[in-house]
């Protein structure tokens, strides 16, 4: 009798837990990027909190094949698959429909119940035009520039390793250019509930017949199959589905040896950015299974957050391409812009909280206290900070208090940079830049031709600097005493800072300045001095 009671209780708890899971909603934060205005070409992140009914949601698993012609792609897929399987299980338990789409592998699943289930769905009459075809672009994408060159196929293998991998595939009797035969067995296929199909018309009919208006896409590869397949993001978006990319459950085919010559992982970030601007929002796996977003073990890039809120020196034009072309090899970069309609507003500052390094180009903004608190929190963390030009006076007005309801930080220059900005000389005299005494061997100056650095921007008056500052560059105009133009500082909490009063738009035309600023960012992050910038002239041009 007691054994029967125990079994009954166990069954009751299991059924109750399943029922609770099925009644839960997917609590999602959809991330997209929207134009800041009609003219600037700048974008702000936009976050939209939504609850999706799992029973009205499909998850499409794109091309998670058992093998691939790119060895590194296989390694990344193998690393990602266990977490993906957890996500699929959790979503399935909550009532979502899982569609496995390993393209070109339907013969392997000919007798599988999930394949037969897909084939048994009656085709809907109102199939979208060309839903059975690849989609290479949707109209919205015409507003942007595709961010990477994938014309070489995107393989990022070492040539020796790639040749070895190809031989191993041939030894198994497989085509080394297309060795896949099935989906990876690291992902479970539930034969009682899931579907298997790579056919756009079949998948659309499954969605329509089951009332599935919400679609999550995950799998590989973001810039090719995930975007372009008949069941991919473009087709789902242009035909009216509420579609999102699960941005941490994907990977690109991108070779860092191709334009824009960034790391493989930055290549993925650029494609995700493109998708968020022109195709559909993104979500993360953590929104369904908890924890933090998935990150590949070889993605060791520090997270650099750049905040731009100044109009005088046009760093909104120079810093984003500098970050992409010069820092994209070694950093994960998030760029935030001040509002174009409200001067004292910088949206989405919560995104700097988990950054490893903070880079500021801000001029005389007073902010809502909750926004300024993000900067104070970052400074208090002791993490490195970088500033250029007007970042010496970012959070206070000239001889005025903050307006009611807004907050300022008058001592920011002294607290964060060890500086003492009081004014600047008039525009006109060209500033001659020189190496500060004792600084010639500083790593920031490696590969920097300081003699070629001049500045048309006015010379800032910053003396005297605080203790624990180390000048790197000096600036001189005729008839005036030299002023420090770049220095490092150790803050009271031990955090290290770098500041330069350079940053005029003309400085970004100078290869020496580009190299110097790249060196400084790497120094702040604790990374080795980077290799010489191959094409400094392109570092600030898209």
Short description:
This protein is an alpha/beta fold.
Write up this protein.
The chain has helices spanning 2-23, 71-93, 113-120, 159-171, 200-209, 222-228, 233-238, 264-278, 286-289, 315-327, 369-380, 412-417, 511-525, and strands at residues 26-35, 43-52, 57-62, 97-101, 195-196, 214-220, 242-251, 282-283, 303-309, 332-337, 357-362, 385-388, 423-424, 431-435, 454-455, 460-461, 469-476, 483-490, 496-500. It is an alpha/beta fold and 542 residues long. The protein folds into two domains: 54-289, Rossmann fold, CATH 3.40.50.850; 303-538, Rossmann fold, CATH 3.40.50.880. Strands 10-9-11-12-19-18-17-14-15 form a nine-stranded mixed beta sheet. β17 (469-476) and β18 (483-490) form a beta hairpin. The longest helix is centred in the first third of the chain and has 23 residues, at 71-93. The termini are far apart. Residues 1-20 have low confidence and may be disordered.
């Amino acid at each position: 009798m007691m054994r029967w009671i125990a079994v009954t209780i166990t069954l009751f708890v299991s059924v109750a837990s399943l029922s609770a899971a099925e009644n839960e909603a997917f609590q999602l934060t959809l991330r997209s990027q929207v134009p800041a205005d009609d003219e600037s070409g700048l974008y702000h992140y936009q976050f939209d909190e939504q609850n999706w009914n799992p029973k009205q949601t499909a998850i499409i698993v794109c091309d998670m094949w058992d093998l691939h012609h790119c060895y590194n792609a296989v390694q990344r897929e193998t690393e990602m698959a266990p977490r993906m399987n957890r996500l699929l299980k959790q979503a399935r338990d909550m009532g979502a429909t899982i569609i496995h789409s390993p393209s070109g592998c339907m013969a392997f699943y000919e007798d599988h119940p999930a394949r037969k289930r897909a084939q048994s769905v009656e085709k809907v009459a109102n199939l979208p035009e060309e839903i059975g075809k690849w989609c290479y672009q949707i109209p919205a994408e015409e507003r942007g520039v595709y961010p990477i060159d994938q014309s070489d196929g995107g393989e990022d293998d070492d040539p020796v390793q790639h040749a070895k991998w190809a031989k191993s595939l041939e030894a198994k009797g497989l085509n080394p250019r297309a060795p896949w035969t099935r989906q990876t067995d690291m992902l479970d296929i539930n034969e009682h509930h899931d579907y298997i199909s790579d056919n756009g018309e079949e998948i659309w009919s499954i969605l329509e017949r089951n009332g599935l208006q919400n679609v999550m896409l995950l799998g590989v590869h973001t810039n090719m199959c995930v975007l372009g397949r008949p069941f991919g993001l473009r087709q789902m978006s242009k035909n009216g589905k509420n579609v999102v990319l699960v941005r941490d459950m994907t990977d690109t085919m991108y070779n860092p040896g191709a334009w824009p010559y960034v790391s493989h992982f930055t290549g993925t970030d650029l494609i995700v950015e493109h998708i968020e601007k022109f195709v559909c929002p993104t979500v993360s796996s953590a929104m369904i299974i908890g924890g933090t977003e998935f990150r590949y073990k070889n993605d060791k890039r520090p997270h650099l957050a750049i905040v731009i809120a100044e109009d005088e020196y046009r760093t909104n034009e120079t810093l984003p391409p500098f970050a992409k072309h010069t820092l994209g090899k070694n950093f994960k970069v998030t760029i935030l812009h001040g509002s174009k309609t409200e001067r004292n507003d910088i949206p989405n500052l919560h995104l700097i909280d988990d950054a490893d390094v903070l880079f500021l180009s801000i001029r005389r903004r007073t902010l809502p206290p909750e926004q300024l608190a993000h900067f104070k929190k970052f400074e208090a963390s002791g993490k490195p900070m970088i500033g250029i030009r007007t970042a010496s006076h970012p959070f206070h007005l000239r001889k005025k208090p903050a307006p009611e309801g807004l907050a300022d930080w008058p001592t920011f220059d002294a607290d964060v940079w060890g500086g003492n900005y009081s004014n600047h000389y008039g525009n006109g005299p060209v500033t001659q830049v020189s190496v500060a005494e004792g600084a010639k061997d500083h790593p920031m100056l490696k590969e920097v031709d300081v003699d070629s650095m001049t500045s048309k921007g006015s010379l800032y008056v910053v003396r005297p600097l605080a203790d624990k500052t180390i000048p790197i560059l000096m600036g001189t105009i005729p008839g005036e005493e030299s002023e420090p133009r770049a220095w490092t500082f150790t803050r009271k909490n031990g955090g290290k800072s770098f500041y330069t009063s350079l940053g005029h738009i003309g400085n970004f035309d100078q290869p020496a300045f580009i190299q110097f600023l790249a060196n400084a960012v790497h120094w702040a992050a604790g990374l080795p001095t980077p290799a010489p910038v191959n094409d400094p002239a392109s570092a600030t041009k898209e």
